Amino acid sequence: MKDIIINGQKQQTGCENVSGLLTEMNLDAETVAVEINGVVLKKSSWQKTPVNSNDRIEIVSFVGGG
What we know:
CATH superfamily: Beta-grasp domain
Number of helices: 1
Order of helices and strands: EEHEEE
CATH topology: Ubiquitin-like (UB roll)
Shape: globular
Helix content: 10-25%
Number of domains: 1
Distance between the termini: 41 Å
Number of strands: 5
Structural class: mainly beta
Largest sheet: 5 strands, mixed
CATH class: Alpha Beta
Radius of gyration: 11 Å
Strand content: 35-45%
C-alpha cells in the first residue's frame, strides 16, 4: 500500500495509476480534473501516470447547475 494525500487527506491505495485510483474512488472520469504534485494531468495520460507514495493529489469534480 502507498501513503498518498488526496485533497489534503492522508489515504492509502494499492492503485498503480491515476485511472485505477479514480475507479477505486468510484469517481466518473468525465466529471473530474486531476492534479498530482502541482501538475494538472490530461485525461489521456491518466492510464500511464503512476501513483507513488507521498504523492499530493487534488481531484476536482465538476458540478452542473443553473
